[in-house]
C-alpha cells in the first residue's frame, strides 16, 4: 500500500501520541498536530471537538489521520460527572474528526478505542469478532467505535488498546516507585488477566496499520496476556525486590471507586488481526519486556 507522507494526529501530547510523533518524524513523515487553540507553529492545525470545528483547509491533502485524543479514564474517581466527561470526550472528539476525515478523504483513518469493549471476560480469551460487554467502559467503547464509522469511504482502523507499558507514564509509571521500595504485590486475587503491550510495540503496530490493508477493530495487545499475579511477580523480579504486599480488593474499591472494576476485572485479549496480518512484536513476553523497561 501507499506509504503516507503527511499524517495528522490528535492527542499528540499524550503518552502514545508523544512517542508516535517522534517515531513518525524519525521515519521521514510530515506530522501535523491537531490542537485546541490557535496554531503557534507551522505543524499545527486547529480543531475544537466541543463545537465540531476542524480547519478543513489546513487538513486537506493529508494521507492519514490518527485520532488518539480523549479524557483519561484513570486520572480521577468515577463520579457521575467524570463518567459523562469520559464518554463525551470520546464521542464529540471522534465524531468531529471522523466527519472531517469523511470530507478530506485520507487513505486511512486510525481511531483509538480500548479493550474495555469486551467487559469482563474472565478466563475466556477474546478476539476482535467477540461481542461487546455490558459494563460502563464497554458501553463507552461501543459508542466510541460507532462514531468512528462516520468516516465513510475511508479505510478505518479502531485500535482496541490494552495496558500500555512504559516507565514514563501509565500504569507502569505509577507502579514503579512502589515496587522499587519493595512495597509492591498482587492486586486483589491476582488471578485476573491483564492484556498488556509495550509502548514501543504500540508505536510499531500503529505504523504497521498505516501501510497494511487491515481495517475495523484491532486488538493492540501482546499475544501473551498474563495474570496480575504473573505481572506483579515479573515486575518485582525485574527490580530485584520482593512482592510481599498485596492490595486487598476492598481497599482498591475504596481507593479507586468505579475504576477499580478495571483493575480487578479480567480481560484475556488476543490480537488476532495483527497476528493474521503478520505483525511481529519486539517484546511479546512480559518478563523480557519488564527487564528492559525498568532499566529505561
UniProtKB/TrEMBL annotation:
InterPro entries xref list: DUF1731, Epimerase_deHydtase, NAD(P)-bd_dom_sf, SDR39U1
Cross-referenced Pfam families: DUF1731, Epimerase
Chain ranges of the NAD-dependent epimerase/dehydratase domain: 7-212
Domain DUF1731, residue spans: 247-291
SUPFAM superfamilies associated with the record: NAD(P)-binding Rossmann-fold domains (SSF51735)
Protein name: Unannotated protein
Species this chain originates from: freshwater metagenome
Amino acid at each position: 500500500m501507499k506509504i503516507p507522507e503527511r499524517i495528522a494526529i490528535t492527542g499528540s501530547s499524550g503518552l502514545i501520541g508523544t512517542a508516535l510523533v517522534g517515531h513518525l518524524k524519525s521515519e521521514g513523515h510530515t506530522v501535523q498536530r491537531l490542537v485546541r487553540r490557535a496554531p503557534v507553529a507551522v505543524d499545527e492545525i486547529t480543531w475544537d471537538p466541543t463545537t465540531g470545528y476542524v480547519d478543513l483547509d489546513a487538513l486537506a491533502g493529508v494521507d492519514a489521520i490518527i485520532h488518539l485524543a480523549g479524557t483519561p479514564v484513570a486520572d480521577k474517581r468515577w463520579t457521575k460527572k467524570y463518567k459523562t466527561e469520559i464518554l463525551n470526550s470520546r464521542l464529540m472528539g471522534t465524531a468531529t474528526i471522523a466527519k472531517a476525515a469523511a470530507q478530506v478523504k485520507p487513505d486511512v483513518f486510525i481511531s483509538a478505542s480500548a479493550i474495555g469493549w469486551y467487559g469482563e471476560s474472565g478466563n475466556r480469551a477474546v478476539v476482535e469478532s467477540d461481542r461487546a460487554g455490558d459494563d460502563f467502559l464497554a458501553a463507552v467503547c461501543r459508542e466510541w467505535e460507532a462514531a468512528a464509522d462516520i468516516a465513510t469511504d475511508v479505510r478505518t482502523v479502531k485500535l482496541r488498546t490494552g495496558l500500555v507499558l512504559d516507565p514514563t507514564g501509565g500504569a507502569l509509571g505509577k507502579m514503579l516507585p512502589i515496587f522499587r521500595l519493595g512495597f509492591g504485590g498482587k492486586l486483589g486475587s491476582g488471578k485476573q488477566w491483564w492484556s498488556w503491550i509495550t509502548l514501543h510495540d504500540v508505536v510499531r503496530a500503529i505504523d504497521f496499520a498505516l501501510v497494511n490493508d487491515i481495517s475495523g477493530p484491532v486488538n493492540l495487545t501482546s499475544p501473551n496476556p498474563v495474570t496480575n499475579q504473573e505481572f506483579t511477580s515479573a515486575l518485582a523480579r525485574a527490580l530485584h525486590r520482593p512482592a510481599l504486599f498485596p492490595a486487598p480488593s476492598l481497599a482498591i474499591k475504596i481507593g479507586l471507586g468505579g475504576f477499580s472494576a478495571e483493575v480487578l476485572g479480567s480481560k484475556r485479549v488476543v490480537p488476532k488481526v495483527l497476528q493474521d496480518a503478520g505483525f511481529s512484536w519486539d517484546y511479546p513476553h512480559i518478563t523480557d519486556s519488564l527487564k528492559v523497561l525498568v532499566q529505561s
